[in-house]
Amino acid sequence: MLDFTFTEEQEMIRESVRDFAQKKIAPIALEMEKTKQIPEEIIKGMAELGLIAPTVSPEYGGQGFDAVTAGIIAEELAKADVTGSIPVFYLVQASWGHIFDKYGTEEAKKEILPNVTKGKWFLGIATTESDAGSDVVGTRTTIRKEGDHYVVNGEKMYISGVREAYTRGGGHITIAKQNPELGAKGMTLFYLPLQSKGIIPTYVDDLGREGISTGGFTIDNVVIPKHYIIGEENRGFYIVHEGYEYARGLISVICAGAGLQSLERGKKYLKERKAFGQPLAKFEALQFRLAEHYTKLSFLRLGAYWALWTYDQEAKGKATRFEVSKAIAMAKMFASEWSNAAIDEVMQWQGAFGYTRECPDQAAWRAIRSFAWAEGSKEIMRVIVSRELLGKEYISYK
Ligand SMILES: Cc1cc2nc3c(=O)[nH]c(=O)nc-3n(C[C@H](O)[C@H](O)[C@H](O)COP(=O)(O)OP(=O)(O)OC[C@H]3O[C@@H](n4cnc5c(N)ncnc54)[C@H](O)[C@@H]3O)c2cc1C
Known about the structure:
Layout: H1 8-25, H2 32-35, H3 40-48, H4 67-80, H5 85-103, H6 106-117, E1 122-126, E2 142-146, E3 149-160, H7 162-168, E4 170-177, E5 187-193, E6 199-203, E7 214-225, E8 229-230, H8 236-272, E9 274-275, E10 278-279, H9 284-315, H10 321-333, H11 335-349, H12 360-369, H13 378-390
Parallel strand pairs: 1-4
Antiparallel strand pairs: 2-3, 3-7, 4-5, 5-8, 6-7, 9-10
Helix pairs in contact: 1-4, 4-5, 4-8, 5-8, 8-9, 8-10, 8-11, 8-12, 9-10, 9-11, 10-13, 11-12
Flavin-adenine dinucleotide binds near residues 133, 160 and 373.
């Protein structure tokens, strides 16, 4: 039986997040483009409402929310923050908090997760390197066991939240090669605190989502205690993809939410602005574009929630890992493209104002563009769906 409704509890959560996001975040969103940081009172407010890594179990400070509920929060944040900074701050910690909660050691969870959910520390993900992005097996960073601890060497690049973890506290779930000769089967995942001796951060100047940093760090003989290993040694490649799937589902909802919100602003403008003696909304050429973008984004929104629901079904034993990968990749495949196309249209409707920094939609456009790469590129989503349809023997790069 099909049921497209959310539970009563989920509706209440949506209501309270919307109230907070529209009152506190929406009015200050564009300021983050200049200050380059999320205001401390917003982080505090999110923590008080339980919106930071709410996927973490209650015993470690979270709410124990499932993926669909995490998606509801992501959507409301995306509708309020045109810069995309707070949605990124949220989605990264919700996804990787979930993975830490599921695979981390008891000792590490007690030590780290409550600081994350309280908004004191930042928890990120670091797989990408200058020479290895989509191809995670191309990772050059290494981890080796020495007695009762591990030593890590290498570098990571294009990582969200480097400044946040380096200056506030916290760190990144990081992947490295433990047994390079084993390829994907020789990679280990671990928690890397960014204040560790041997970490040197660098920053990149992103086009958008400027309230949260993107950067990299070199890792020079950094010592990691054994309780920071996430899951088993040499299982990192597989665990990290679970986290990426979670994040991709949330990103798909964010793209739909941001795009639909932009269309709302566009609709208002079309009705108010007059040309040739009538409101722009009277021109069918523009009406049809509105109808098309709205339809695409509504399907994207449904597809994104379906993908997150599929993720939740796996935990109940009702979906396989492969069904989850395919559903999530299908949702993310068009997410940034369709959202960017809708936002671009809204900028176009606004004439020359659409090309100024005062126009909220240009900030949304730049933010959404990042999701064509972040947490798995739109091409890699096609690779995954094709692999699931045709079989592994047809993977082009093998
Ligand atoms: C703003 C931003 C934030 C990010 N944050 C993080 C983060 O927090 N943590 C992290 O680890 N990474 C992060 N990334 C990195 C992101 O995950 C990578 O950019 C992405 O995985 C692609 O890797 P790459 O940039 O090295 O491109 P490459 O892997 O070098 O790919 C280059 C191009 O080739 C395409 N391509 C590659 N392989 C194939 C194939 N088999 N078939 C068809 N096309 C292919 C890609 O889709 C891409 O268009 C972030 C990126 C951005 C832009």
